[in-house]
Amino acid sequence: MSVLPSEPVPGFDDLSLDWLRARRSVKWHRPGPRVLPAWVADMDFPTPPVVVAALREAVDRRDLGYPDWPDGSPLRRAFARRMMDRYAWAAPSDRVREQTDLIQCLQLVLHLATGAGDAVAIQTPNYPPFLATLATMNRRAVPIPMRDCADGWCMDPAALDTAVAESGCKALVLVNPHNPTGRVLTRAELEEIAAIARRHDLLVISDEIHAELAHEPHRHIPFASLSPDAAGRTVTLTSATKAFNLAATRCAVTHYGPDRLLALRDAQPPDLYGAVSPLGVIATEAAWREGDAWQRDLLTVLDRNRRRVHQVVSTELPRLRHHLPEATYLAWFDARPLGLGESPVERVLKEGDVLLVGGSPFGPDADGFLRLNFATSHAVLEDILAGLVRALRPGPSQ
Please, are residues 100 and 250 in contact by the beta-carbon 8 Å criterion? Predict the structure, then answer.
């Protein structure tokens, strides 16, 4: 089944299994020595050299004391520059606040802007920690199902409008680009959502952490950039961690559109929600300032890999429903047509020695679905796909 890439990409296709299995992070450490992990959303690729150099320089100069940031970290200006350079969005830097990760960003905004029992709309399927956050914080999740359309996954604005009206939602958690389906919402779709938010006075909490992983010809559009009204009701959450593989640096940003919410945030005790690490700020600045060449190579590899996944699934497992993702390094499969009679995650692990995720943690009606992380080398991806096919290929009687 293996088809060699026409041009292996140095630094991305020369990963050894020994090096990967020696990692102490959860993706490769937890599954054990026999299993190939394609579950948690970490990439297998080494940290970008420009980030390593920036961190090493800070450590070599023994500069690990308290930072001198009287007006907030340099991330505030770095975020504003990145948004202007990438998306022509003039995001005021004085409305940016630092947090340790995106989940904390979401939890803080929900804590400040909503109360126990309040309804919050959210696309489903969705990133499991977001759904778990709503449950743990006693916010009533109002699922807005993504529809499986002929040419990809679709968000249904009419369903959103009806659900918000009937449930009295205070907020919408909008994940765009979407995890796990990989959809990139178009300007027309975003404008429909913005009209609904304006009509129902919704706070929009826009998770845009996968923005820089959109594949050609798709383009990410920051929700807050749509109009002054959208800007004034949107809280944007993002980080360099997904697009540059920096999860361990624990660094994210929140851009606050609503004046009242920003004032409420700044009225909190300054260290109540923790403080971002200076090393995380250094890593993020280096990635955003000097990492574009590395990221171009990354996107070349991810584009090739997403097409390879789609090719193998379409030819070897034609009943496994799948759309070519428009962004991210995640593939979302509907295994229900296979009629397995058991969890497809368990089947793939047992018969294919490959660890994926899926099912109910992604929301209602997600049983029978699988998510596969294809951010790895060509050789490792081929082994993952071989395990997937081995586990899910129909037998003679099927």
Answer: yes
* Bond preceding residue 67 cis, omega within 30 of 0: no
Rounded (10°) angle between helices 378-392 and 292-316: 30
Determine the Cα angle at 79 with ends 78 and 82, to 5°.
85
Per-residue pLDDT of the chain (398 residues; tens, 9 = 90+): 555 556 889 999 999 999 999 999 999 999 988 999 999 999 999 999 999 999 999 999 998 999 999 989 999 999 999 999 999 999 999 999 999 999 999 999 999 999 999 999 999 999 999 999 999 999 999 999 999 998 899 999 999 999 999 999 999 999 999 999 999 999 999 999 999 999 999 999 999 999 999 999 999 999 999 999 999 999 999 999 999 999 999 999 999 999 999 999 999 998 899 889 999 999 999 999 999 999 999 999 999 999 999 999 999 999 999 999 999 999 999 999 999 999 999 999 999 999 999 999 999 999 999 999 999 999 999 999 999 999 999 764 45
Q: State the CATH architecture for 17-49+292-392.
A: Alpha-Beta Complex (3.90)
Judge whether 235 and 202 are in contact, CB under 8 Å. Answer: no
Three-class secondary structure of residue 96 per DSSP: strand
Q: How far is CA 68 from the centre of its chain?
A: 31
CATH 3.30.420.40 fits 67-290, yes or no: no
Q: pTM value?
A: 0.96
**Residue ranges of the chain that CATH labels 3.90.1150.10:** 17-49+292-392
Which helix (DSSP H) or strand (DSSP E) does residue 333 occupy? strand 330-334
Count how many Cα atoms sit within 13 Å of the Cα of residue 391 in the half-sphere of its side chain: 25
Structure tokens at 56: 């090493």
Separation CA 145–CA 166 (nearest Å): 16
Residue span(s) of the chain under CATH 3.40.640.10 come to: 67-290
What are the CA-CA distances from residue 75 to residues 71, 78, 283 (Å)? 11, 5, 10
Residue 397's contacts (CB-CB under 8 Å, 6 or more residues apart) are: none
Which residues does residue 153 pair with via DSSP β-bridges, in sequence order? 148
* 169, amino acid identity: C
Element holding 175 (H helix, E strand)? strand 171-175
Q: Which residues of 287-302 are buried (b: 16+ CB within 10 A; e: fewer)?
A: bbeebeebbeebbebb
